[in-house]
């Protein structure tokens, strides 16, 4: 597994009473005052682009107290109610479209921690006094943190609005994307993109073809925007052989926010058009065979790729697209090509 | 566990187990999101021993409930070798 990035925590889910502030907020007068150490830890997480959420056994009224306290505006996908925290964690992972092993859970109650540890062993479980130390662990270190990552919170808020609009929208997924006025820009990567591309390669799993670090060299990058906002640079395809009759894409990495909106076929279609315009007859994409990155393979299939064979090592297959005609972009997106 | 039962448990809706075989899993049908697809294949691997992600290079089995059920049934014996 050399070259495969460490598992990263993307969301830290906090308990409230006794963890972020002393006592039971709804049984006290006034607005709760958070522990200074916890506030500092939340600031550190925000600076690293790691999201924070809440799982609290309190009625939703406590959410209003959160918004009047020093914690206002920090949390996404907060879960209140009497149910088990493992279910709250599952809902948070689903709403934010991350895997359970990208979650950490902080609670002062040993019973709650034990229940989560037993039921969801892939979640990183911490007592409040362990957080300071955990912040120096590799899974809490996403590497260079870019402006795009710092604005991830805004981006997830956009996504919550988009999700609400989708559930109210009566029509197909493609009609919804059209209604969203989804638009992509494709261009060649330049030196200023480097940190963001390293980060994308490390942070992506579902929409990541090979799991290697960003290899450098020539790359096509994709930015995405729609009526809900601008996601910035959310996809890359790194090409190692840009001059022969067959081009090979060593790494496809697309953020899960964009992957769920069809970014993989759009990006690969862009690479295919570029390769064809430079005389290539075939585009190859090696892909690791794991259920974890099946979403990227479904995107390749949508772009017209089919399996051309399995690598000798067995856990990688090569997907191919013949460039006989000019590949066309899907109809539900407006693409600006700057290739 | 059968594939429809695993699917119903992953989606969290028992009624899904009784849907017709030609129900599409992705767009135009259940429209499973990416996280759910990943969990579904992991649960199938754990429950039946069939590693769909590894065996079905083109992922044709993910077309409908019926194609996935048949693929898992056809490969259930082989995967233990």
Structural class of chain B comes to: mainly alpha
Q: How are the strands of the biggest sheet of chain A laid out side by side?
A: 11-12-10-9-8-7-6-13
Number of domains of chain A: 2
Portion of residues in helices of chain B? Answer: 40-55%
CATH class of chain B, please?
Mainly Alpha
Domain unit count of chain B: 1
Low-confidence sequence ranges of chain A: 1-5
Task: Tell me the overall shape of chain A.
Answer: elongated
CATH topology of chain B: Non-ribosomal Peptide Synthetase Peptidyl Carrier Protein, Chain A
- Our count of helices of chain B gives 4
Q: CATH top level of the largest domain in chain A?
A: Alpha Beta
How large is the count of helical segments of chain A? 12
Summarize the main sheet of chain A. 8 strands, mixed
Task: Outline the biggest β-sheet of chain B.
Answer: none
How much is the average pLDDT of chain B?
Answer: 90
* Distance between the first and last residues' Cα of chain A: 34 Å
Oligomer: heterodimer
Give Rg of chain B in angstroms: 12 Å
Kindly identify the CATH topology of the largest domain in chain A.
Answer: Aminopeptidase
Query: Which architecture of the largest domain in chain A does the CATH hierarchy give at level 2?
Result: 3-Layer(aba) Sandwich
Order of helices and strands of chain B: HHHH
Summarize the structure.
The complex is a heterodimer of chains A (339) and B (81). With 339 residues, chain A is α/β, with parallel strands linked by helices.
What does this protein look like?
The complex is a heterodimer of chains A (339) and B (81). Chain A is of the alpha/beta class. Chain A has two domains: 11-140, HAD superfamily/HAD-like (Rossmann fold); 171-338, Gcn5-related N-acetyltransferase (GNAT) (Aminopeptidase), CATH 3.40.630. Chain A has twelve helices and 13 strands. In chain A, the strands form two sheets. Chain A has an eight-stranded mixed sheet with strand order 11-12-10-9-8-7-6-13, with helices on both faces. In chain A, strand 1, helix 1 (36-47) and strand 2 form a beta-alpha-beta unit. In chain A, helix 11 (263-277) crosses helix 12. Residues 1-5 of chain A have low confidence and may be disordered. Chain B is 48% helix and 0% strand. Chain B has helices spanning 3-11, 34-48, 52-55, 65-75. Chain B has one domain: Non-ribosomal Peptide Synthetase Peptidyl Carrier Protein, Chain A. In chain B, helix 1 (3-11) crosses helix 2. Chain B has four helices and no strands. Chain A binds chain B through residues 93-94, 97-99, 172-174, 206-207, 256, 259-260, 289-292, 294-295, 297-298, 301, 306-307, 310, 315, 317, and chain B through 26-28, 31, 33-38, 41-42, 45, 51-54, 57-59, 62.
């Amino acid at each position: 597994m050399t070259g495969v990035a460490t598992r990263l925590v993307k969301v830290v889910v906090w308990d409230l009473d006794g963890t972020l502030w002393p006592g039971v907020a709804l049984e006290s007068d006034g607005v709760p005052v958070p522990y200074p150490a916890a506030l500092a830890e939340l600031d550190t997480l925000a600076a690293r682009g790691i999201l924070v959420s809440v799982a609290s056994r309190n009625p939703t009224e406590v959410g209003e107290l959160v918004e009047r306290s020093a914690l206002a505006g920090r949390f996404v996908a907060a879960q209140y109610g009497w149910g088990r925290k493992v279910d709250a964690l599952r809902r948070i992972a689903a709403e934010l479209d991350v895997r359970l092993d990208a979650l950490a859970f902080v609670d002062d109650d040993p019973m709650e921690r034990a229940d989560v540890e037993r039921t969801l062993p892939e979640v990183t479980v911490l007592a409040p006094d362990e957080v300071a130390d955990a912040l120096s662990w590799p899974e809490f270190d996403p590497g260079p943190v870019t402006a795009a990552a710092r604005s991830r919170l805004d981006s997830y808020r956009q996504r919550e609005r988009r999700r609400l609009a989708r559930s109210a929208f009566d029509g197909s997924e493609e009609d919804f994307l059209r209604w969203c006025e989804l638009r992509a820009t494709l261009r060649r990567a330049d030196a200023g993109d480097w940190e963001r591309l390293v980060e994308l390669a490390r942070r992506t799993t579902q929409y990541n073809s090979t799991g290697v670090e960003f290899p450098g060299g020539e790359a096509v990058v994709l930015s995405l925007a729609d009526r809900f906002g601008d996601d910035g640079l959310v996809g890359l395809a790194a090409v190692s052989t840009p001059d022969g009759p067959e081009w090979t894409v060593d790494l496809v990495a697309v953020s899960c926010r964009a992957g769920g909106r069809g970014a993989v076929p759009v990006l690969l279609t862009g690479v295919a058009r570029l390769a064809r315009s430079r005389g290539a007859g075939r585009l190859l994409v090696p892909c690791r065979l794991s259920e974890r990155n099946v979403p990227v393979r479904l995107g390749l299939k949508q772009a017209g790729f089919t399996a051309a064979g399995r690598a000798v090592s067995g856990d990688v297959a090569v997907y191919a697209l013949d460039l006989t005609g000019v590949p066309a972009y899907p109809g539900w997106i407006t693409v600006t090509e700057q290739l | 566990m059968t594939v429809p039962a695993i699917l119903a448990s992953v989606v969290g809706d028992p009624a899904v187990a009784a849907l017709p075989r030609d129900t599409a899993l992705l767009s135009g049908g259940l429209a499973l999101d990416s996280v759910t697809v990943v969990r579904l294949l992991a649960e199938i691997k754990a429950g039946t021993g069939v590693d769909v992600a590894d065996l079905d290079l083109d992922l044709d089995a993910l077309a409908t409930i019926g194609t996935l059920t048949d693929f898992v049934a056809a490969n259930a014996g082989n995967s233990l070798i």
